[in-house]
Amino acid sequence: MKKLLSLSGAIILATALHASDANIEKRLEMLEGKVEKLSAENNVLTEELTSLESEKWYQSVDVSKSQSGMGAAASKVYYSQNPLSIGGYGEVYYTNPSNKDAYTDVYRFIPYIGYKFSDNIILNTEIEFEHGGDKVLIEFLYLDFILNKYANIRVGQQLVPVGLINLRHEPTLFPTVLRPETETYVIPSTWNELGVTLYGETETFAYQFGIINALNFDSEETRSGALKWIKNARRGSKEKIAAREAAFTGRIDYTGIEGLKTGVSLYYGDGTNVKGADIDGTSMFLYDLHASYKQHAFGVNLLWTEATLSGAGKIGGSAAKKAEGFYANASYNIFSILGKPTLQMPLFYQYENYNPVKESVDGTNTFQDITSHTFGLNYFPHEQVVFKAEYQVKDDKNIQDDTIKTASLSFGFIF
To answer: Are 408 and 177 in contact (CB under 8 A)?
Structure first.
């Protein structure tokens, strides 16, 4: 009997132990499942933290954003989550004109460095390296005091708010390999001066009004009516540049229709600004009428400008006194025809007519009008990268070979 009881007890114990092992295995499986789930959740959390940490140190460009009309990369510091912002742009081109040998140029590499002291006090800078580093300068260096949407104050070296290109000169923002010559020789882009500007916007208008360091036309280029008599009048950020005279600049744009920006900008100031004695009784008035429209696959830019130097006779008997220019650029994204509107390959045509010395004091040293037709194609493999190809026919009767045919290639980027 005792043996039977012992045997029964052993069987019960074995059964209990087996059941216990099964329960333990089941619980272990459940625990392993929970561990795997926690591990997966931890990996997701780690990736999110890594992404946030990366975002903390680096802000990508949002091409849809612009601060006070500037390009997306130049505006980066304003929406960066990190106080320190680093951006920039670059452009390299090859060109083969019919009147001289083909050449290449590592044209520009531009770092933007910005810093937010607070949400209301922002430093923004642009350092320019041109022609492979042959020329280095500070394009802008200013402090913005952000008050509200309607009124803000900018103090320092800054872009002059005139024309279509000067504020938006990043290579992804215009279709030609080089900027329109009207906005090089009449409006002297890239144009930057020391000053103070008030700017803001409403639901339908954007404005900028400022006091800046004046241009200087007391030069041999003005007296002889040279091509760059306006361009080289810029004071810029050179060492201890003369700042005897101030000038007024202003801009107002209508933005009440989606995709459309149209308006007027102007500059008015004394005609001379040099160390020593200025020439009294001279003044420069420069203005432009501009419009840009972008909707779906179609885009167009239009600009007319005129510059008049009053009192030019006091600078020289044959001095330049008037310049004017016009261009129209239309583009259409051919990928939209193929049913792929998110891809960007715009075809464009640009007509330009300008005269850098339309009038002079005594009628000598004037230029004949320069006219060009430019056909081209842009390809955007990424919204921040562009490849450009164009063919230009320029009629310039001011040189021996009055018709110049030029084929050009380039690439540009913003970051």
So the answer is: yes
